[in-house]
Amino acid sequence: MTGAPFNPLAGLWQNNPALVQLLGLCPLLAVTTTVVNGLTLGLATMAVVMATNSVISLLRNSVAAVVRIPMFVLIIAALVTCIDLLTNALFFDLHETLGLFIPLIITNCAILAQAETVASRKPLGPSLISGFATGAGFCAVLVALGALREVFGSGSLLAGMDMLVGESGAALTIDLPFDGVLAAVLPPGAFFGLAVLLALRNVYNDRARTHARARQRAARRSHAA
């Protein structure tokens, strides 16, 4: 019995690490009070996943199976340290805001899962694409949850973007005509926001499956006729 065929883009939607695997929930729930926080952590995570998959794919035939997991963790830790130092040097204010959550990328099980199930078994091209898809899917959820909580919790959108893109980013801030609800930016708001995203995904998938079955029935009827 063979498994499902490998799809390097599954991390975007079908096997999204946040909405399907429910991995990386600690930073997902903790830092997504604004879009800029979610985007920054998402981009950092995506860079780590892509770099990890690339390095491990290139070394996959040189690492003994008995030490592969410790080796994967060391590679991830080294790359996260590089990203942490770069963030500290280039985006100091954002680095101070995100605090410990950039180093905690090391503990994101989605990265180790990619290393074990994809990068250690696939060549560089598919591994890099899969890493990009997984990182982009995780980043998209971070941004969506950050936008949801910022709008309903602070009454604004894209606040603090100047910390990421420079002074011109201040012009991107949208001030909405209400102050927001404090609960949305508190921990309970993160859980409710994630629940909303999970529900929306499930509704979309259910409707897509219903439409697909309807098309199949219509096709069978047309062939029978």
Features:
8 helices, single chain, two-stranded antiparallel ribbon, mainly alpha
Kindly describe this structure.
The chain has one domain. The protein has a two-stranded antiparallel sheet with strand order 1-2. It has 225 residues and is an all-alpha fold. The two termini are 36 Å apart. The protein contains eight helices and two strands; from the N terminus they run ααααααβαβα. It has helices spanning 25-30, 35-59, 68-90, 92-98, 109-119, 124-154, 162-165, 187-224; strands spanning 156-157, 174-175. The model has no long low-confidence stretch (mean pLDDT 91). The longest helix has 38 residues, at 187-224.
